[in-house]
Amino acid sequence: MKEVKLIIIEDHTMVREMWKILLTPARGFIILADCGGVTEAKKIITQMKADVIMLDINLAGDSGFDLIPDIMHYAPGTKLLVVSMHSLASYAKKAMRMGASGYVTKNSTNDELVDAIREVANGKKYICKEVAALMSGDAPPAGDDSPDINNLSSREIEIVQFIKKGKSSKEIAETLDLSLRTVEAHRYNILHKLKLKNTASLISYISKTDIGI
C-alpha cells in the first residue's frame, strides 16, 4: 500500500496529537507537518507536497473556509479533506463546492476517518455517514429570499447552536468568554444575515435546520 503524505491544519493541539497517534506509518500514513493557524498553514502548503490536507473549519480567529482558495491555488494536486465539529449538510456542500474532496465530522469513528483519507487520496469523494444521512433528507433548494445558513460565520454558527440548546446571551457569553455586548451583536447579525425578524423566528428556523450540536 502506498503511503499517504498528510498535512494537518487543526487549532487544537490535543486533536493534532491524537491524529498523530492514529495516522502512523504502520497504517500507511506520513504526517509531513501540522499547524494550528492560517498564517503558518499558508507557509506549509507552499513548501511541502502532500497527498491529502486535513483542514478544520474552526481555526483560531479564522475560518478554514477562507483557507480553501489558497489550498486550491498553491497545492492544486493535493486532495482536501475537511474535518469539522459541525454536522451540517450545508457546510459539507460549501466545502465540496470550493474544491474539497471530502467532509467528515469529529463525531466520526477513527476507522471512518482513515477510510475517508484513503478514499480522497485515491481521487474519490467522501462524505461521512452522519452528514450523508442529513443530505439524503434535504429539502429542495430554497428561493433566493429564504434564510441561508451558509451566510453565517463559524462563530455565529457556534452561537446559533447554543441558542438551539436554550442558552441565554449571558450563558453564551460566559461559556465562550465573550462580553455580553459582543454576543448580542452576534445575535443581531445572525438575524440580519438570515433575514429573520426576531429570536422567535430564529428558533423556529433552526428547529427545522440541520444545525449540528
How does this model look, in words?
The protein is of the alpha/beta class and 213 residues long. It has two domains: 4-136, 3-Layer(aba) Sandwich (Rossmann fold), CATH 3.40.50; 149-206, Winged helix-like DNA-binding domain superfamily/Winged helix DNA-binding domain (Arc Repressor Mutant, subunit A, Orthogonal Bundle). It is built from ten helices and eight strands. It has a six-stranded parallel beta sheet with strand order 2-1-3-6-7-8, sandwiched between helices. Strands 4-5 form a two-stranded antiparallel sheet. The relative contact order is 0.11.
The run of helices and strands is EHEHEEEHEHEHEHHHHH
Count of the domains: 2
What is the CATH C-level name of the largest domain?
Alpha Beta
Structural class: alpha/beta
**Over all CA atoms, what is the radius of gyration?**
18 Å
